[in-house]
Amino acid sequence: MLRIKNNEFVIPGQLIGSRIICDTNCFYENGKVYSAIQGIARVIGNRVIIIPSSGTYVPKEGDIVIGVVKNIMSRNWVIDINSPYTCILKGEEVARDPLNEDIRKYFVVGDIISGKISRVDEVNNSTISGPRKLENGIVIEVNPKRVPRVVGKKRSMLNLIKEKTKSRILVGQNGRIWINDGNIELTIMAIKRIEKEAQTKGLTDRIAKMLEENYNKN
Amino acid sequence: MKRNGKIRLIKDGKRLDGRKFDELRRIEMKVGVLKRATGSAYVEWGKNKVLAGVYGPRELHPKYLRDPTKALLRCIYNLAPFSVEERKRPGPDRRSIEISKVTTEALNSVVLVERYPNTAIDVFIEILQADAGTRCAGINAAALALADAGIPMRDLVTACAVGKVDGEIVLDLMKEEDNYGECDMPVAITPRKKEVVLLQMDGKLTRDEFKRAYELAIDGAMRICEIQKNALLSSINVDVKGV
To answer: Which of B39, B32, B192, B58 is nearest to A10 (CA)?
Structure first.
């Protein structure tokens, strides 16, 4: 039985219902489901999803992330993925013979790379694969929980921005976004606004309007 | 005000600031006040001004403190040197360490620390202006800041102090009542199940007085919980007009 409505704002400890399927932002107690965080609850049939407004990034298998090389070990790189957990890029990913090569010729400390999280263990340490060095452009950081809104349903928001600014944009699930070419300033302005107003209605229209106004200026 | 050398704290059935025995001071709460913190809250409670900032979950240093089964929640309560009339020397003193300890224990009972192994969740409570009841204001601010940070919790935590002043059980002591009263009892509960997460007493109460004081504290805490909920709710109503 559901005790809340769709799009209702919930707070930690609020009763969601009983015999409801809920994801990781909830907890179970005596057969009932309660919200563990503050956010907006979305009801889809028997399932409830709570959309958080803030939180840190915890790596998930399959996520595309943007990381910064922060340390080089003998045959691996340690990558900072904006998370409290360690992320390793194994030498075998790029080098044929990582033990006998100087792997620094591929990536050095400070390089910005994009990749996919290939494995996450029980204490959230992860490995990244398919690394690609991101040169030029600019990387900005947003609240990782707002990333889905920046991308939009079926990438609608992201495509809208790309179309109007002609920028190349790579969105990392860990809250980092790489922008290159085109009207970089306008892209950053749009993304920052989406981050700030993520939970409001009619955002897509407002962003489209803002992009249109600035596009015509240039 | 002085009579037989003792200060009279209750006159004509009213307290020094005109409040009734079960009346709270003016309380205002706001979240999201620190841009760099994961979560934050600012509470004004009577003349108290309290700022709470939450950082985390983040990497825990030193490594030997890391626990692969849960996060380490650390709360630090600090009185700013300018928060009291006579300058308080900066740095932790025994009182601050005690309050930090009991606050950590109170919040530890609600935060779902098992969800973030090997990390630290740091909560900083800074008292900018003190006027009795700072540990309660600090706990209320910390709970809000944790919710603002998106850290999973079983429930919020609400704290309120009661005491005995001139023989009467009163709610929410102010500075004069705390200094010259007969008892000061801060209480913190989880509002959903009314479980006690902090209970301290400084003074003397009979068993009957304690029961009445406890009931009054729970009643006050439930009223404060509504203010906390409203503070969280207003944080999502963002101004959309500015570009």
So the answer is: B192
